[in-house]
Each structure stands twice: as C-alpha cells, then as structure tokens.
Design a protein that fits this description.
- This protein has 347 residues and is an alpha/beta fold.
- The strands form 4 sheets. Strands 4-5-6-7-8-9-10-11 form an 8-stranded parallel β-barrel, surrounded by 5 helices.
- Helix 2 packs parallel to helix 3, helix 5 packs across helix 7 and helix 8 crosses helix 10.
- It is globular and about 55 Å long.
- The relative contact order is 0.18.
- The structure holds guanosine-5'-monophosphate.
- The site of guanosine-5'-monophosphate has 27 residues, from strand 11.
- Guanosine-5'-monophosphate binds next to strand 11.
C-alpha cells in the first residue's frame, strides 16, 4: 500500500486571482478556439464546450441548439441506428460526436451507421479507461477510422493519458467520480479531485500534442472557467445542461394560479437504476460504475444557460487579461481557498 500526500484539488478548493490588464470590456475577448487534431488531422473552430453523452442532455435537439453557439454535443448512444443515419446524413455535424462503448454491439452499430452516413467525430466512453481492453479498442477504432476525431476516456492521470494518446486518441476525456449524478466515489472509494486531474492530464496530453476534455464536476459557470484555467481544451457538461427544453426526460408540472406549469425535470446517471431499467435488455451496455437519479429545476430553453456560461467565461478572461481563450491557462493563478484550508486550520 502507498499513500500519496501531494496536494490534489477540486474546483471548490481554488479561485482565480485577478490580474492587471488592458482589456476594457468582455466584448474584447474571444472565447473560440481552433484545434488541429493530432491523429484525425482535421481542424475545428468553436466554443470548446460539449454536452455530455447522457441520454437526458446528449440529444439531437441539444446538438442543434449548442451548435448555434459554436459548441458541441456528444450524442447519447441509445439512439437507434436509423435515427443516427438520418441525423448524420441530413445535418451539419461538425460539432457532433457519435458515442459508443466497447461492446461488439456498439462496434457493429458504428460500422452500420458509418457505411450509410458521414461520421467525423467519435466519443469512446467507458467508466474506467484504465483497462488494456479499452486501449486495444481505441487502437482498433483508430485503425479503421484514420481521419476521425477520436475522444476517449475516462482517465485521471498522466500515464494513462499518454497511453491513450499513443493508441490513437485525439482528445482524452478526464474525470472519474466528479459527476453531479455519479456515486462512484461513494460506492467504490475510487476517484481523483477534478482540478488536479485536469492539470496533470493536460500536461501529459499537451506534451504529445493531444487535447483533453474535462468531464464532470462543473456546477456553476465559474467551474467551467477554472477548468479552462487548469488547461482543459474542452469542457463537458451534464448537470449544468439538464432541465432544458432540449433535454429528453420526464417533466414534472404543478398547478399555479389555475395553470399547469413545468417545474422540474428528471436527470440521472448513465449507470443509475433509472438508466438500467430504461435500457436493460436492449442493445446498449452500461458504464460499470454507479449513478443516481435527481430532479433539477425546469429552466426553459438552453440558450439562457449558454449565455450565462459564455458570459462567465468572457468575464473571467477580462479579470485576468486574456484576449483569447487559448491564453487562459498561461494567465491563470489559482489561489487555494475553502475546504482544504479549513481542514488544515480547523476552521
Ligand atoms: P456533470 O456535468 O453532471 O457533473 O458530469 C457529467 C459526467 O458524469 C458525464 O459526462 C459522465 O462522465 C459522468 N456520468 C454520467 N453518468 C454517470 C454515472 O451513472 N456514473 C458515473 N460514475 N459517472 C457518470
């Protein structure tokens, strides 16, 4: 047994220190980034935010709405092949990932869809990206899809980030246990503080010219800013995008002044009982880890939330004097606050 005592931090443990700058307004900053992908070779420009491939938020309606902001969506993997073929044939899918797990059924479905429609971006998603089987699967998908942008994970350490980049991944998905409806930390004791995971994985990926996507744990726009500050190239959101019109999920209504108004929507982890029941016996395999079911307030169209997130990121950039999103990690100084200091000093 080994104990690592290096400091590891979560979003809540830090704030971003303001810096002197010449920027006058939020309008002076550019929140888009351009990436050339290491293996796929293609280029992409946009606001590097991705709706998670959870069946409530990774919807086709979400893809259309987020694309209008230059942001991306990883479609959930439970759409029937026919619906995916129609979508990838008919729509502009530059901002859309096709998601899959590692079962033969997932693999055959991808082949079937790809034989009939152009699919340029793939999200290979497993709860535990540390298995040799997963690395082999990434290799196999890369061999068969040399031009695709491949995002794969999840991992939380530099060694595995490097292994996945070398196996053919363009974007490493980072995060084990931070998700809002994830119970992995509670149920297994396994996890890694997300801010440190991003910092360490970004360092490893960037050294090999790969990118990272910070996946999970953002609860407010400030967390998205902190993720970019820590070196995330992309940020993936589940809970922050739940509760909107573009989601697929049961809505709860209440009578108010004689009117029936929507007040809340269901949101659940892809390994939760709810997801298991919904898809059990179907073609899909599940993430091996645990998840829970919650209710989130109904929030109308996702446009309002996107404006808030983008406004928060823009404002953070003016506080630290970063004109372009790419400059944010270089201009970020985190200061430690909150729980860890409280623990140390007994506050
Ligand atoms: P959020 O933005 O809600 O904090 O986190 C979203 C991420 O949580 C997803 O992209 C995915 O990586 C993770 N996630 C989704 N469902 C589950 C689940 O049932 N169990 C676990 N361990 N993680 C989940």
């Amino acid at each position: 047994m080994i104990i690592e005592s290096d400091l590891k931090l979560d979003f809540k443990d830090v704030l971003i220190r303001p810096k002197r700058s010449t920027l006058a307004s939020r309008n002076d900053v550019d929140i888009r980034r351009t990436f050339r992908f290491l293996h796929g070779g293609s280029e992409w420009t946009g606001f590097p935010l991705i709706a998670a491939n959870m069946d409530v938020v990774g919807t086709m309606a979400m893809a259309r709405a987020l694309s209008a902001f230059g942001a991306m969506t990883a479609l959930h993997k439970h759409y029937p092949a026919e619906a995916l073929v129609d979508f990838f044939r008919q729509e502009d899918t530059a901002n859309v990932f096709y998601s899959l797990g590692t079962t033969e059924t997932d693999y055959e479905k991808l082949r079937a869809v790809k034989s009939r429609a152009p699919v340029g971006k793939l999200c290979l998603d497993v709860a535990n990206g540390y298995t040799e089987k997963f690395v082999q699967f990434v290799r196999r998908i890369r061999d068969e899809n040399p031009d695709a942008v491949i995002m794969a994970g999840n991992v939380v350490t530099g060694d595995m980030t490097e292994a996945l980049v070398l196996a053919g991944t363009d974007i490493i998905k980072v995060g084990i246990g931070p998700g809002s409806v994830c119970t992995t930390r509670k149920m297994t004791g396994v996890g890694y503080p997300q801010l440190s995971a991003i910092i360490e994985c970004a360092d490893a990926a960037h050294g090999l010219k790969g990118q990272v996507c910070a996946d999970g744990g953002c609860t407010v726009p400030g967390d998205v800013s902190k993720a970019y500050g820590a070196g995330a190239d992309f940020v993936m959101l589940g809970g922050m995008l739940a509760g909107h019109d573009e989601c697929e999920g049961d809505i709860r209504y209440e009578e108010r002044d004689g009117e029936r108004v929507p007040v809340a929507m269901a949101f659940y982890g892809m390994s939760s009982d709810t997801a298991m029941k919904k898809y059990a016996g179907g073609v899909a395999a599940y993430r091996a880890s645990e998840g829970k079911t919650v209710e989130v307030p109904y929030r109308g169209p996702v446009e309002g939330t996107m404006q808030e997130i983008m406004g928060g990121v823009r404002s953070m950039m003016t506080y630290i004097g970063a004109t372009r999103l790419k400059e944010v990690p270089k201009r970020t100084t985190f200061i430690r606050v909150g729980s860890q200091l409280n623990t140390v000093f007994g506050a």
